[in-house]
Design a protein that fits this description.
The complex is a heterodimer of chains A (354) and B (252). In chain A, helix 5 (94-104) runs antiparallel to helix 13, helix 6 (116-130) packs antiparallel against helix 7 and helix 8 packs across helix 9. Chain A has 354 residues and is α/β, with parallel strands linked by helices. In chain A, a hairpin with a 3-residue loop joins strand 2 (43-48) and strand 3. Chain A is elongated. Chain A has helices at residues 15-21, 25-30, 32-38, 63-76, 94-104, 116-130, 136-155, 165-177, 192-203, 216-226, 236-239, 259-265, 300-329, 343-348; strands at 2-9, 43-48, 52-59, 89-92, 184-188, 208-213, 229-232, 245-248, 274-278, 295-299. Chain A has two domains: 2-160 and 312-351, Beta Polymerase, domain 2, CATH 3.30.460.30; 165-306, NAD(P)-binding Rossmann-like Domain (Rossmann fold), CATH 3.40.50. Chain B is mostly helical and 252 residues long. Chain B contains eight helices and no strands. Chain B has helices spanning 3-23, 29-53, 61-82, 89-102, 121-156, 170-195, 205-226, 231-250. Chain B is globular, with a radius of gyration of 18 Å. The model of chain B has no long low-confidence stretch (mean pLDDT 86). The chains are: A alpha/beta (354), B mainly alpha (252). The A-B interface holds A 157, 160, 172, 174-179, 267, 269-273, 290, 292-294, 296, 298, 302, 306, 309 and B 25, 150-151, 154-155, 157, 159, 165, 167-172, 174, 227-233.
Chain lengths: 354, 252
């Protein structure tokens, strides 16, 4: 009996492939007999997220044999395409533990260090535990991996710093206002950048959004999507006095927000702090607005640089994280999670040391 | 070792620990324990002097500075918890160390001519409230310094500043500055009203200074209330007013 893992992830499979193999809890229950049969009544946990689909299995079947059985099963389901074979990674023995720790700590995630994966793995594991699909060995594997994953997150800074322009913008707004729940946001230009950044702000508690766009229909669509209100493009200046955060991303070839616009509303705003996120290229906001002490302006260059620094910082934490995993299992860090295991590593695998 | 030296040593070590923790993006209970120990030692220092004088210990500039140190620490412990501004410890402990060091200047240890005053509960309360007000306004000035630093970082997008990630948001600092200003002003107002009931008020420079302080803070609060003030300007005023008042107090 040994631990095995079959999976595909964003690293080598496009979303069109991943979505074919995605499996819901309902489908897992429906197909449980097939899985039990393929694993010779082994134990299994199935993790299916938008970025990966992984089967964690404890079975007497060899890795190659198991993969063949799964391929046949997928062929029966009309899911299999001959090109898919190279997209699957097959891991066995101690490397399964190492891989699961990497997944749980966010080391293997598309956004390095992201935390959502922890809940996704926990949900997948608890579902299979409740359905009695797991046994002692898989329970040990997951419990130990949760503990190592937590250690990595607390002892390294793998989740600190922001790695996307949207989240950097939100962090800066939070540094200015603290709680964002009381702040009013105005979006000028209803493009994708604005939408993503506004969504990031709303995920941090912001509630009030006003959208203004040259095409009013687009403004209405985005406002509905965000649960805010839309105003005509000609009216944004009149609304300026009421807002705390402006996200601007129009296709205008010249500045949309000029110092004169701010000057007009300063008294009315009682010199309250105003955060402007300029996501447009060419820029929408005349940098001269920063002459007003209460105005904080951030453009694409600043936000991108910060996001890059965040990524770099998280990358540096990988070495520490790998050392924690090695220490937990007393193994050398592996090079890549998506390589098929060699017979040597098979011999070295000994999960009983957990 | 003399109690003053122990306090200076503790506040200096505490400042170093605070800066080190903040620069390394960490927080620790140790820094709070050091602030608490400093506060208890300064309280004991005030108590000893109070016992010796059998009245509120304000018989020299040194004692005034010690009392203000105590008051600043008190407000730090209160607002640090309420507004999650423990980061202010970074400036509070150095301020305490500075006041204690200033108090060691021989000329500032000389007793005031009016040191031997009759025991009068109104006078004791008057003095106590004014010094408490100086503590609140001092803490407002320190929050102002912190704001000016954060403002500079945010304006220049100089996010490599090692303390940046530990700094509290501007919104929280703004609220703390304004509330401390109101609190200090209210204490000052009550203290001055009590002062009018005292005979000495009419010819005391310290009393005129307190009245002058009251007027300046009153103007600041009213202007902010009626037309609003950019926080940068307000922080500069709060800091400048406090330094001015301290200089006047020390040079009596």
């Amino acid at each position: 009996m040994q631990l095995l893992c079959l999976g595909i992830s964003y690293q080598n499979a496009a979303v069109s492939v991943r979505e074919k193999f995605a499996i819901s809890n309902k489908q897992i229950i429906e197909c449980q007999e097939s899985f039990k049969s393929m694993t010779d009544q082994g134990d299994f946990v199935i993790l299916s997220t938008c970025n990966r689909v992984e089967y964690y299995i404890y079975s007497r079947v060899s890795l190659n044999e198991l993969f063949e059985r799964f391929v046949n099963y997928w062929k029966e389901q009309n899911l299999w395409h001959s090109d898919d074979k190279n997209l699957f990674y097959q891991i066995e023995g101690s490397q399964v533990f190492e891989h699961l720790c990497s997944v749980l700590s966010g080391m293997d995630s598309m956004v390095l260090g992201e935390t959502e994966i922890v809940k996704q793995v926990k949900d997948a594991y608890h579902f299979c535990l409740e359905q009695k699909f797991t046994g002692k060995e898989l329970n040990q594997l997951f419990q130990k991996s949760f503990s190592v994953g937590k250690k990595i997150r607390t002892q390294t800074q793998i989740q600190t710093g922001q790695v996307s322009v949207g989240s950097v913008a939100v962090d800066l707004a939070a540094k200015i206002f603290g709680e964002l729940s009381e702040q009013k946001i105005m979006i000028i230009g209803a493009g994708d950048n604005s939408r993503v950044t506004a969504q990031s702000l709303m995920s941090r508690g912001a509630q009030s959004v006003i959208v203004s766009n040259r095409s009013h229909d687009k403004a209405v669509d985005l406002a509905e999507h965000l649960g805010g209100s839309a105003i005509r493009f000609d009216d944004w200046e009149a609304t300026l006095a009421q807002v705390d955060i402006i996200i601007s991303s129009t296709g205008s070839p010249h500045f949309v927000i000029e110092p004169t616009h701010i000057e007009k509303v300063r008294k009315q705003r009682k010199y309250k702090e105003l955060c402007i996120i300029d996501l447009a290229i060419p820029r929408d906001v005349n940098p001269a607005v920063t002459e007003f002490s209460e105005v904080y302006l951030y453009d694409m260059d600043t936000l991108s640089q910060l996001a890059d620094k965040g990524k770099e910082h998280r990358q540096k934490q990988l070495i520490k994280a790998k050392a924690i995993i090695s220490e937990a299992f007393d193994i050398k860090p592996k090079q890549a999670p998506n390589q098929q295991s060699s017979p040597d590593s098979l011999a070295a695998s000994n999960f009983n040391t957990l | 070792m003399d109690l003053t030296f122990i306090i200076i040593l503790l506040a200096s070590i505490g400042s170093g620990i605070h800066w080190n923790l903040a620069a390394n993006n960490k927080s620790s209970l140790v820094s709070l324990i050091i602030v608490l120990c400093t506060f208890f030692l300064v309280t004991y220092q005030v108590y000893i002097r109070g016992q010796a004088a059998q009245q509120c210990p304000i018989n020299s500039v040194q004692e005034l500075l010690i009392f203000i140190s105590w008051s600043i620490l008190l407000f730090y412990l209160v607002i640090g918890k309420i507004y999650r501004l423990s980061f202010l410890g970074l400036l509070t402990l150095p301020a305490v160390a500075l006041f204690e060091v200033l108090g060691l200047i021989p000329s500032l240890q000389m007793a005031f001519p009016s040191a031997q005053r009759a025991i009068n509960p109104i006078l004791e309360w008057h003095v106590f409230l004014l010094l408490l007000a100086y503590g609140a306004l001092g803490q407002a000035a320190l929050a102002g310094v912190l704001f000016l630093q954060l403002h500079r970082v945010l304006k220049k997008s100089n996010f490599s500043n090692r303390l940046f990630s530990q700094m509290p948001p501007i919104g929280r600092l703004s609220e703390a500055i304004k509330r401390l200003l109101w609190l200090g002003f209210s204490l000052l107002t009550i203290g001055i009203i009590l002062g009018f009931k005292l005979d000495y008020a009419a010819d005391s420079f310290k009393f005129y200074l307190a009245c002058g302080t009251w007027v300046s803070y009153f103007v600041l609060i009213i202007v902010d209330k009626i037309r609003g003030l950019p926080l940068k300007l307000m922080s500069i005023y709060v800091l400048a007013l406090y330094i001015l008042n301290l200089i006047l107090l020390v040079s009596i």
